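User: Hello! I'm new to structural biology and keep hearing that structure can be predicted from sequence alone. Could you demonstrate with ATP-binding protein? Please show me the input and the output so I can see what each looks like.

Assistant: Of course. The first part below is the input, the amino acid sequence of ATP-binding protein. The second part is the output, the predicted structure written as tokens.
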Amino acid sequence: MRDPLSVLTEAFTSFLFGKVETTRLPVRTSTGQAQAVYLPTAAPGLGDSGVIIGREVYSGKGYIYDPFQLYGQQLPAPHWLVLGESGNGKSALEKTYVLRQLRFRDRQVVVLDAQGEDGVGEWNLIAQELGITPIRLDPMVANDAGIRLNPLDPSITTTGQLALLRTIIEVAMGHGLDERSGFALKVAHAHVNEHITDRQPILTDIVERLRHPEPESAEAMNVDRDDVRAWGLDVALVLDRLVDGDLRGMFDGPTTVGIDLDAPLIVFDLSHIDRNSIAMPILMAIVGVWLEHTWIRPDRKKRIFLVEEAWHIINSPFVAQLFQRLLKFGRRLGLSFVAVVHHLSDVVDGAAAKEAAAILKMASTRTIYAQKADEARNTGRVLGLPRWAVEIIPTLTPGIAVWDVNGNVQVVKHLITEKERPLVYTDRAMTESSGPPTDPELEWETEQRAILIEQQMNDSSQSTVA
């Protein structure tokens, strides 16, 4: 029986302050049972506008990403770096991303397709599905049948033409032009542009003028004409490779008529070019500058420039400098540059370390697929990833990647619809099926989420992202 004084004190306290909180006895339980007390939590997403990528692994939430929607708010730059060893899902991600972006009417994509299978580039199936013919650059094709891009196309400014010619020569020679060689190239280019007006000037015209300089060019510098010829000899030999050497047929004539720069998808098929030869960075430079002056326009379209084997760009100081300018210029006109690289060490330890660092700094979005532990630590150090992300990169399974969107780091599983599946898997030569093995326990869940993605994508095709 309670003490009468305690009862009286409690009644008086309740009258003054209201009913007091009841005292409950403590409950003993296990951590397994007590976890139900805590509400589930998850990192914030990137918004609900844009392209569906898949789902965030730890929370199961849908993961949506669009650099054009995030630019200026959560992203300082719309450029994107994709890293990871072969066979982990980089290619599937790129292709589904492009297919989903193209459902919006104000999107346009250019792909430099450097990988091949069955004699064609790996983007060939997607191009066929969209009714597009890839621009296949192939030095082995007969001159009359090949596609040409003219570095002296009148749509490129004279300043841009000269910069492009210098880059081609510097990439091929492996060092910068000295003042005398640069002067010989400049006067030859100026003479060709001034005197050839009835057609497109071509590289043959430059080579011919370097071999036979005009007397006026020598007189302007108060030197002998033979000196100017000697200064331009090495330059002429390099350019001759594009005219009559192993790179002939691609850049030694007027730009091919009929290249549709208004198509939603433009694929440059480089799969017939030796990826380890000097030809690849030269091609990257020419295509990059040609697109800068002919494709990027102030028409309010959002453009995506996706480059496979992008280390050919980032690992060459001269090509990297050109693309740095393109990236800075492109932000003002709505360009998102997507660089796909296997290993970060391919570029940060190369000859263009300074230029590579500048380009990597512009990439505010980084997607990292599985890498070996040493490579993961190096990647984490260069990109400034949190420790937990670095530790899980070697354990990631195909299709799952660490996404770092300007410091918002999440682990994302990429999901693919049944319609996309036959278009995006390109390892048929190594596997019996058209896709990776599926975990039976997750198969139903993945299919249901993929159906949801497809429904949402169909809905989004009816409207344009603001």
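User: So the tokens describe the shape?

Assistant: Right, they're a compact way of writing down the 3D structure. Reading them back into a model, for example: The chain is about 45% helix and 15% strand.
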